Amino acid sequence: MSLETMRPNPTWDAASYEEAVETLAAHNDELVYTVWGGDWCKDCRALLPDFGAALEAAEVPDDRIEEVNVDEDKQGPGVEAYDIEYIPTIVVETDDGEEIVRFVEEEDVPPAVWLADQLERELA
C-alpha cells in the first residue's frame, strides 16, 4: 500500500532546491529509496510530500521508491529487519542492498536536502 503523504507537493519549488535535485538525479538509476511512514503521522504529513516532489523532480523511477505504510504502533513490513523506530524513516540503498544513508524523522533540513548532502559525502 502506498502512502498518500508521498504524493508530490504541487507547490514545491524544485528551483529552490536545485543542488539537492541534481544530486538525487545523478544517482536516480542506481539507488533505492525505502520510505517508512504513515498517513496518520504529523511528521510524515509535514515532510514526505516535499520529499515526493524532490524525487519526482529528480526523475527517480517509481520502481526505485518503496513506500511502507506502518500502523499507529509503528508496525509494518521491514520494521524489525531495518530497526525502524521513528517515522518517517528513509533508507537509501544500492541495488545489492547496501545501506548508504538513512534519514530518521527529524533533521534540521528537509529530507531531500539532508539525503543529498549525505549522498554527496558517501558517494564522492
Automatic annotation (TrEMBL):
PROSITE patterns documented for this protein: THIOREDOXIN_2 (PS51352)
Superkingdom classification of source: Archaea
Every Thioredoxin domain range: 1-124
InterPro entries, alphabetized: Thioredoxin-like_sf, Thioredoxin_domain
Protein name: Thioredoxin
Species name: Natrinema pellirubrum (strain DSM 15624 / CIP 106293 / JCM 10476 / NCIMB 786 / 157)
